[in-house]
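Researcher: Structure for this, please.
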Amino acid sequence: MLIPDSAAVLATLLAFVTLIPQITKLWRTRNAEGVSATWASLGAVSNAAWVAYLASQGLWLALPSTSFMSVFFAITVWLIAWTGRPSFRPVMLGLSWGAVLTLVGVLGGWSSLGIVLGVSFGVQAAPTVFTAFRTWAPSGISPGTWQLTLAEGILWLVYGLGYADLAVIMFGILSSVTAVLVLGRYYSTRHRWLESSDGPPLRSPT
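Model: Predicted structure, token format:
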């Protein structure tokens, strides 16, 4: 299928750079306000599980992107900790999520794991949306990362629809919706750190 496969190729290429704007901003500014360490920890684990699932289904075009995303999410966790934010709890939550995914795969097989992975982005997205909306001035968020996430989500949705893969379809939808929410929060509060303000920003939750 030309269109779905082309969408997967483009999404794979985007995945190589999706987290680079966020990683670069964290490294350059040492500012993690609005960036969830739990999101990054869950992302590293979920993408590792996606690698196993995609390989089992023979969806080879999607493998490179998910492999790189797992590594980039792990780097993001490290950088958030480097900024001074607590990282033990987010890492433990990530490991616990990995144990849940492993149990699902062992007991329910690949089909069950695929269904859980389809909604796993919702589990992963909840902390990042919560953190972005809880933080008074989420200045640490990189809009570039979420713009790329939106484009990638749409492309994976096209790919999933083309091959009638429910897990990939759900991932595409949840990814796109999350990106819109985070971008909306970022741009609607941007004036808070661009202009002087008397109200002190809240520290980002994990």
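Researcher: Any notable elements?
Model: The CA atoms of residues 38 and 93 lie 7 Å apart. Residues 198-202 have pLDDT under 50 and may be disordered.
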